[in-house]
Amino acid sequence: ECITAMMMTRRCVRGALLALAALAIAVNANESAVIQVDDNNFDHVVGEYEVVLVNFYADWCRFSQMLKPIYKQTAQLIGSSLNARLAQLDCENPHAQNKKNENGISKYPTIKVFRNGKALRAEYRGPRTPTAMEAFIKELLAPAVRPLASEEDIAKLVTQHHKVIVGHFDSKEHAHYSIFEQVANEMRDHCHFAAWIGSNRAGDDGAHIVFKTMADEHEYAGRLGELADYQAWATNEAIPLVREITFQNGEELTEEGLPFAILFYNPADMHPVQQFSRIVRARMEKYRGKVNFITADGTTFTHPLQHLGKTKSDLPILAADTFRHMYLFKNFKRIHRPNVLEDFVEDMLTGRLHQVLHNPALRKTATKDPYADEYDDYDDEAEPDDDKRDTIKEKLEDAQDAKVKLHQSRGCIYCSPVLLRRRRRPTLNLSRWLRQSPSVKLNSLSTSARLVLQRRVTMKAKSRR
Questions:
Q1: pTM for the full model?
Q2: What are the Cα distances from residue 246, in Å, to 140, 281, 319, 442, 461?
Q3: Are 323 and 253 in contact (CB under 8 A)?
Q4: Dihedrals φ, ψ of 455, to 5°?
């Protein structure tokens, strides 16, 4: 019995030791799920996998400490099943300063994304949760060309990503599909690509490619067999002069450090976006790299409108934003006029808009405001019919004018032209009113008007006493 008890005790001890060893291995595996990098192994790690997320952190940063357990959980979710890894770099480590400076790290934590050893333009700015980060990595690893099967699929994709290059092909074996796929792989970080195999828009050539946004659609008119021509067209469309700002890319656009020429529009009317995009593409190429031309949903970004003293009912609104001040372009319809938009952008870049804003003397001595409200219609649009121009507001104004004229014809002192220009009720200076309105005689006034006048004269006499 003693021998049996000793054997059972040894088995229990052995089992406990094995369990502890397994736990230690699991702990070590969890700890090593996130790869620690520095100046020595950074390039090797980010180049070894297709996608690598690198967390640039500092131990003293509270937000870095909050991210650490989430980052480890994400690494465990990814595991070794995907060609992706999570790495971290301690920005306080003296042996990691070169990579910290090389990546322009100025805030903690910053999660940069690397694909095949090259840093993507955009950082990870999504939710800091394991499932969200895992979904983001899987999206990066997904095929560059997304399959579509209907116009509804295209509309959903455009609504979600704002810009998409869509290839309509009669079959996947089409000679030009491989070129489309090659360009999609090279430019997938700048634009989303999708293909509709068997589309009725493939045409006689069996292939038709378009760039789609919520406001516009541009067809590729070049030769599909020419890789260089198609690449140049796709680059020009996918990295355009005019970009849409959202809550997802707002920080990214701001960090580029360039002032904005921003159009706030109403999604129910995309015509101003088309006008703005066409004019910028045609005339403002020389400002690439100096100004970010932006469009923004004015029903979503309402706070900037408040800074301009505007509301959603005033859309569309064009403004310059230097991140110090916002300057209003007072009539968007004037952008078709030669050099008007160019002069506005130049005044923003040279600081003239800032000087005029803060120097009243310049405003007084300045010549006629080149951005004033003078034109009522787009230059490239036909004049509206007269009956269509009679809006409800105009009809109300006409009715008010008719009412005022009726009162004036009856000698109403409240409707005197002099007082109406002053836009307030009559003051006690009745003698001045009578001098300025000699045609109005006391005898011609109505009974109620004479009583009001007599009461005011009495009040004035009492105040003098």
A1: 0.54
A2: 20, 21, 17, 65, 66
A3: no
A4: -65, -40
